[in-house]
């Protein structure tokens, strides 16, 4: 009883461990949103744009700077004076003369008018923040699509593995039947050898399939931020939405596709840049003010007309006007460059729109094709399974050759491969349609 209890506990623990290792598609997407490197990098860029926008109000504030200096000198001085009374020069020498000089100032500069550049700059920073958010959404959509495709590729290969193991069971049955028939004198050695060759071929296919699943699992782990070599189970079926309509996608993709929205936002940013460059044609008016303090203290003076202590302090203020007259036509060059960038962004938007439009059309055509193939292969599987069952019974009864059974097996294997391929390709087309419309965030 003790051994039976331990066995039951081990079995329950094994079941619980397997249950804990189950990774659903939603779990994978959640992990990707948290750990995917491409998403994290894009979010970092977006955060930088948001930080610039947050401090954009500083363009309207004055610049205030403080400066302070303290200098201590020790000098040897020698002066020669001409005497008017005697006509002879007199020489005065002082060694180790200490001088202390201290000065500090606070300077304020406030741009009052710069051709509205400061307003355009603030507007551009606000649009850049929105542009960064759209890029994050675009990257999230692309990353989620990659996770979905990789996840269901593992599911597909698991189904393929089950099909291979099913063929292994049939080939093992063939080996047993061929060996039994040979032992009673009703079979042949080539029949048994061929059955063993087919069985070994399926074992090789099983090993290849297991390796492929492990590689795909590592690819998915990299996308969702798991450690390489992580072991987990995925779903055992591929759910498909069979009711998607092309009209829903064609009518909405310009308002929902984040990449297109980001391209459109780039046009707005380029237009604002033109405003910034045009501001260089206007004069700049600034208010300037400063408070200065300067103090010089000499321990001794050689020249009696030189002050031993000198101090100046006071506040000054005024206005400064800078009028652009000629700067080598650099401002006009920058304006034309900015206008060319506007045209570039418009052309780029039309290009991206065309690519998305064509991508939607192709994805939907593929979606419709794979649905039809899926229906066809569902029917083929029923026929192929029935054919194998009949061929196996006929082979057991000795009314058919192993070649007929083998052919039926190959037909079933091909039918399953086509079925799983149709399921996966339909899911790929469905995911691509939703990605192009930007619906994978929902």
What does this protein structure show overall?
With 442 residues, the chain is α+β, with helices and mostly antiparallel strands. The N terminus is likely disordered. It has a 4-stranded antiparallel beta sheet with strand order 1-2-3-4, with no helix packed on it. The protein is elongated and about 155 Å long. It has 2 domains: 336 residues, Outer membrane efflux proteins (OEP); 75 residues, no CATH class. The protein is built from 10 helices and 4 strands, in the order αααββαααααββαα.
Tally of helical runs: 10
Radius of gyration: 41 Å
The H/E string reads HHHEEHHHHHEEHH
**How many domain regions?**
2
- Residue stretches low in confidence (pLDDT < 50, at least 5 long) are 1-10, 12-20
Structural class: alpha+beta
Indicate the overall shape. elongated
Q: Biggest sheet, open or closed, and with what strands and sense?
A: 4 strands, antiparallel
Give the CATH superfamily of the largest domain: Outer membrane efflux proteins (OEP)
Total strand segments: 4
Strand order of the largest sheet: 1-2-3-4
Q: What is the CATH level 1 assignment of the largest domain? A: Mainly Alpha
Mean pLDDT: 87
> Kindly, what is the distance between the CA atoms of the first and last residues, rounded to a whole number of angstroms?
54 Å
Q: Helix coverage percent of residues?
A: 55-70%
Strand content: 15-25%
Task: Output the CATH topology of the largest domain.
Answer: Outer membrane efflux proteins (OEP)
CATH architecture assignment name of the largest domain:
Up-down Bundle
